[in-house]
Amino acid sequence: MAEEKKFLQGKVTAISFAHFVHDVYSSFLAPLLPLLVEKFSLSLSAAGFLSVVQRFPSLLNPFVGLLAERLPIRYILIMAPALTATLMSLIGIMPHITLIILLLITSGISGSFFHVPAPIMIKRVSGDRIGKGMSYFMLGGEIARGVGPLYVLGGISLWGLEGTYRLLPLGLLSSVSLFFMFKNIPIADELKRKKKKTGAMNAVKEQLPFFISIGGIILFTSLVKRALTSFLPIYLTHNGSSLWMAGIALSVVQFSGAAGNLFTGTLSDKIGRRKTLLLMSGLAPLLLVLFVYTADTVFALPLLVVIGLVMFATTPVLLAEVNTINSEYAGLINGIFMTLNFVLGAIAMLLIGIFGDYLGLKTTYLITAAISFFSLFFVFRLPQE
């Protein structure tokens, strides 16, 4: 019983490292978008569509959650980073946009098979400090999204867009190291098949009001997130910044987001998840407005640090909220959350691209900030802790 309440630092770190490796490569798309827009003469809507394509397989996440009870989860978590690394490293040499779409779809499938079971494993090894465990897990992902742009832009500087395939070996070596890190972790224990007392559909219906609230929070907070991640390099390069400066700015947001993830998950364990969500959801749109009016000044990068601290902070808190649900279908419940997170994020990204084409990104950013305040309504709908 004591073991169940203990925070197992080494095991949490191992799974978080796997998250880091995987997301370094899956974060290649955003910094590559300006070059792909130029190479294939894409509109902002088409650029946004590429990001949607990468997230489209997340529709499979609930099914992945159900399959997790039957699949060799240990080896999926080990092999997914290598597969994603292979697919994303080949984008630069693709001669046609259709081939890039195929790579993105396949990498999205690989991501689904990694991201659905991993948080359940984190829950198992975090004891009674789930918020802290989810913070470590998200820390790995956010650091990866800060390292990824610098890693791929460094490769482009050395070998050009067509030379990104040279970045692949590190991903393959990482999966080998993950094998040794995971060999003594009981990865599948939490997902072993058990006789269920209720059906899967009944389990989902019971949590429907909860997921409506979670979905509203994700949608309206994703507008700010996607505006200042997927479209940040395009926004800055259109305003006169170099590609390297845009990549550095994106990395600044992601690195500070990693720090925010580590802080807020632990904070939510202390002051409550609802209060933490209210604070972060209210601050993010205000900071976006400030960025719009300071993007071409010396205050831009310091402000992006603060934005990153706040903007990504809701995800580990929501993950902790979802993984405290007492359900026989932990994989399915987690899969639904991941589907909402990815799909609603993709919708937000597509909306920003469409409005950006017609209104310009600056106006779109200001509209996005105003609409994002609706997330507060859905936070208030969450149950009291």
Give the tally of β-strands: 0
H/E series = HHHHHHHHHHHHHHHHHHHH
- Report the major sheet: none
Helix proportion range: over 70%
Distance linking N and C termini: 23 Å
CATH architecture: Up-down Bundle
The radius of gyration is 20 Å
Beta-strand portion reads: under 5%
Number of domains as seen in the coordinates: 1
Gross morphology is: globular
Secondary-structure-derived class: mainly alpha
CATH homology group = MFS general substrate transporter like domains
Regarding CATH, which class?
Answer: Mainly Alpha
Query: pLDDT under 50 segments (min length 5)?
Result: none
In short:
By secondary structure, this protein is mainly α. It has helices at residues 2-5, 9-26, 29-40, 44-55, 61-67, 73-89, 97-115, 117-125, 130-159, 168-182, 200-206, 208-227, 232-238, 243-271, 273-292, 300-311, 314-322, 330-359, 361-372, 375-380.
Describe the protein in words.
- The structure is a single chain.
- By secondary structure, this protein is mostly helical.
- The chain has one domain (2-185, 198-380): MFS general substrate transporter like domains (Growth Hormone, Chain: A), CATH 1.20.1250.
- The chain has helices at residues 2-5, 9-26, 29-40, 44-55, 61-67, 73-89, 97-115, 117-125, 130-159, 168-182, 200-206, 208-227, 232-238, 243-271, 273-292, 300-311, 314-322, 330-359, 361-372, 375-380.
- Helix 9 crosses helix 17 (314-322), helix 15 (273-292) runs antiparallel to helix 17 and helix 18 crosses helix 19 (361-372).
- It is globular and about 55 Å long.
